[in-house]
């Protein structure tokens, strides 16, 4: 089968590899019908994360179940399914509390790779959610987005306690930040301030529900958010980048007693305890428990209440995956869909 | 009037100073009827915080209103009152959201000093809460505790989302940690694990509601908490120390999706973003908004439902304040009450 493999930073190839197969009796194998490239795939691409050996890429997926292990009960061959970027049993206390991304049996799908013709999905009953009916092309894109970027943006908005009467600031205008705006709007936020300098992303932010755009960054960006909020700062801030600067901006833009939901994979961030202490904001972040939200997100998508799939602005056949990585690295594309 | 003044680390004296007076029209002056020494007073005493010049000490108080400014409306001369260690207007959006310790007009009482015969209380209407009836000697001690250590422990328990069905771990066995146990119990926690090595404090912890004692610290302490909680970790953890070790212990002892309420004044703490990201716990801490809880706490105390005043295990006249500092520094006393 074809699979995208990163051989070194900047060196991504579509290789021919052994077909995915059931290994554990709780596994399923799906025929991937669409995959995509994630902002987090750029960390190794840019050499910020090590690439020790050729690594299978991709952790977002929609597909049709091809084969199931002996212990799989709830998912059947032929089902159209979506799952999160973390496989989870969905039964342990951590899963039951809604934190499936930290399941005691968690398997990171990125270590398996879903930018491929087929993918092995561990803990299939816990991980996969069946899609009812037959999605349109637009719905298929949105379902693929639900697998990570939508689910992650949604978690960030929930973690930031976005809701009625709230002013939400969003740091980061990648796919996750943009879909955090969609989530905040859907959760009833009164005002949504997108921090973005790119006109195409500003447009999408506005389309998803942003009421204000702030182009300033760092201390200036914080000052502007305070100016827009009567000097107080945002009630809720979504952080969707993962750098020292973006975390400082998110915490600084939030009023005391407010909430920061941070989902940008943290790279080189150090928080001073004393700054955090006197900021007096709630911090919740980490790998998003997308599985918690999938049933609701699938329903919202299949009933055309949300259209997160519009974040895909470049579509390439899997053979040309390398071009997709390059386009995202150079910010010529927000989110690249790979067809199979 | 007499006032406790720190002249240098380790050098605390009871000096004769000018009597407190109304400065702003929103001030009140109270005759302090009891004051006390706080664990946080030990930071400068130990030289961990600078003492640039002679500094008035104390930020906890109960007293009788002696004089009010022209704009004070809700508090009258003769009222017996308790207030928080942060003066607040109680009307700004931050106060209204329950974060009075970060009021836009906040005044830290520690900068004014309440280990004295009289104290100026800024923003009297917002800061002070009238005590109904005449407290007994035991109730007076408890009301004094409400001013900081009880209110702070209570906030920590609320921030950690202690409640029915929850297992709460408590890092720190000073007065705040101990009263965090009392708060967690009162909030309905099912199981409360006190981390303590001192038998006298373990006894008080048990009296306040601790169901388990863990003597191990650091990684061993974390392992023990996990062992006691089916491998998951605590749902809720109260951090009441403020060091790198105690924060690491608190975060490590908490299960993914759990909550850490941290109220130990942070000294030299640095949190690695990546560790925090993958811990996936909620963090909320800072100077406790004691004012939020005061009406409820005063009611619980005056109806003898809680007895936090038992944390005071040494009572000294204000002239002998220096002995009290020494006793707390040497851990011979948990909490020292100063009589006037």
Automatic annotation (TrEMBL), chains A, B:
Essential cofactor(s): Zn(2+)
Record-linked Pfam families: ADH_N, ADH_zinc_N
Residues of the Alcohol dehydrogenase-like C-terminal domain: 175-288
CDD domains, A to Z: FDH_like_ADH3
Oxidoreductase as UniProt keyword: yes
Keywords assigned: Metal-binding, Oxidoreductase, Zinc
Ranges where the Alcohol dehydrogenase-like N-terminal domain occurs: 25-132
Family according to the record: Belongs to the zinc-containing alcohol dehydrogenase family.
Protein name: Zinc-dependent alcohol dehydrogenase family protein
């Amino acid at each position: 089968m074809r699979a995208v493999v990163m051989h070194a930073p900047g060196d991504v190839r579509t290789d021919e590899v052994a077909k995915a197969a059931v290994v554990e009796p709780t596994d399923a194998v799906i025929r991937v019908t669409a995959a995509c490239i994630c902002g987090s795939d750029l960390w190794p691409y840019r050499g910020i994360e090590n690439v020790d050996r050729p690594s299978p890429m991709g952790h977002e997926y929609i597909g049709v179940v091809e084969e199931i292990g002996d212990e799989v009960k709830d998912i059947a061959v032929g089902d159209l399914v979506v799952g999160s970027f973390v496989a989870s049993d969905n039964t342990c206390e951590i899963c039951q509390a809604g934190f499936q991304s930290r399941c005691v049996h968690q398997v990171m799908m990125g270590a398996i790779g879903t930018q491929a013709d087929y993918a092995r999905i561990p803990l299939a009953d816990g991980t996969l959610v069946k899609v009812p009916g037959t999605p349109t092309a637009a719905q298929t894109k949105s379902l693929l987005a639900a697998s990570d970027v939508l689910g992650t943006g949604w978690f960030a908005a929930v973690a930031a306690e976005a809701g009625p009467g709230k002013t939400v600031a969003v740091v980061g205008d990648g796919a996750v930040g943009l879909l955090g705006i969609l989530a905040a709007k859907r959760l009833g936020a009164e005002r949504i301030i997108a921090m973005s300098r790119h006109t195409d992303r500003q447009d999408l932010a506005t389309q998803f529900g942003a009421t204000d755009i702030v182009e300033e960054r760092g201390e200036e960006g914080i000052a502007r958010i305070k100016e827009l909020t009567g000097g107080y700062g945002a009630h809720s801030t979504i952080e969707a980048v993962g750098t020292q600067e973006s975390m400082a901006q998110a915490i600084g833009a939030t009023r005391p007693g407010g909430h920061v939901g941070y989902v940008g994979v943290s790279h080189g961030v150090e928080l001073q305890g004393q700054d955090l202490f006197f900021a007096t904001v709630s911090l919740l972040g980490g790998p998003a428990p997308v599985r918690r939200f999938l049933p609701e997100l699938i329903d919202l998508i299949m009933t055309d209440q949300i259209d997160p799939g519009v974040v895909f602005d470049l579509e390439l056949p899997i053979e040309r995956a390398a071009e997709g990585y390059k386009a995202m690295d150079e910010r010529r594309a927000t989110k690249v869909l790979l067809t199979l």
